[in-house]
Amino acid sequence: MMRPRLSLMAASLALALAGCALGPDYQRPQAAIELPAAYAEGAQAPADSPALASQWWTLFGDAQLNQLVSQALAGSPDARSAAARIEEAEALLRQVDAALLPQVDLSATGAHTRYSQTTAVKTPNAASIRDSAKLNLATSFELDVWGKLRRSSEAAQAQFLGTRYAAETVYLSLAASVTQSYLSLRALDAQLALARDNLESQTQITRLTEKRQQGGIASALDVEQARSTLASYRSTAATLAQRRAVALSQLGLLVGQPGLQVAEGDLKGLPLPPEPPVGLPSSLLEARPDLRKAETDLIAANAKIGVAKAALFPGITLTGSFGRESKDLAQLFSAPSAIWSLGAGITQPIFEGGRLRARVEEVSAQQKQSLEAYRKAVQTAFREVNDALVTLHASAETEAAQQQTLDAARRTRDLTRLRHASGYAAYADVLAAERSSNEAAQTWLDRRQARLSASVDLFKALGGGWKDERPLAQR
Q: 220-255 and 63-75 helices cross at what angle (nearest 10)?
């Protein structure tokens, strides 16, 4: 009697393994990635186009920046929270995949029971006090004939990957924020160094003007103008020092280290923005974690259609148990004490008011929304990279032009100082030249900071940096 039943179970299991999964198989939508081969700010992508580098901040060549970003990715609350979400998604995936395996339960019971001797129905020659022991191993398994469990696992796998990509997006944003904050700090250092240089120079000019007044060469007006300019430089230096302290505090918050201390830099220590290679291919967008997240959302929504369709078909469950039962513990493992059972069950929805079909329509509509969200994410990402490239090239041109303006203003300042020292120029001319030189220097710093910021925006838009894999002789 047992062999036919086992044969029936084997046939059912073979049917389940050979069963097809309902619902559409995922295919990447081609319309979502039909983009120009390269961006407007470059030539066509070369055959050996550069690959993305995950640690893009190292391209700035600043060891202090590299250390700060590494600390932020390892110890900031945002990074740790993202890592915890990955652990949560992985645990959920294991729960879903566990449904593909049989469930096995072990139970054991024992009892020492006294029965009434005055009931209407009485078992002859039965003792009033009896012992019983039972050891049972039971299993149940749902045959995945229609692919409901496999589609559920597919959706959970996509959601797990989506959580990882979401965490990578957090890491990318965190690295960009730390880099932007650090570069702003270094720009403030450069401005502060410039302000201190101007303060020292103006202090010497003020002392010289006071001596010239004592000798009857300079007027009281010249002295007051020099002192006024000196006080203005002191105020500027104090304001920049206060702004640097606030920027450093913000950087410490991003890194996860309150009270962070970073030594001051100078103009020479201001990082140089890396130049993107010509012809960045638009295919690099596929590495952006937010685009990967949008695609995994689409994959999960696609798999849920199969789950909903499988609910319309019969559900088949196999059950079985094997154990021992005896009134005497000593005989529990004897042959006559064996007990077992095999069974199968089938459940077919008959009437549910259209709820299951409505569920199929619901998840199908959700899949369409995910598809459009993916397409929009790809197009938005292309626009962000293109805009970042335009901004980066424009800021590089304005910085170069401002550098020429700064060089000319400094030469004019130096010549005016010499003419004033020789008595051929009025002090008002010196003040005007100093003012023009300082404004030109401040504008150049603003242009450099804008260029650095545009570089970070480009890295963030690309989802990473680029690897220069050319031979050293060609770089």
A: 40
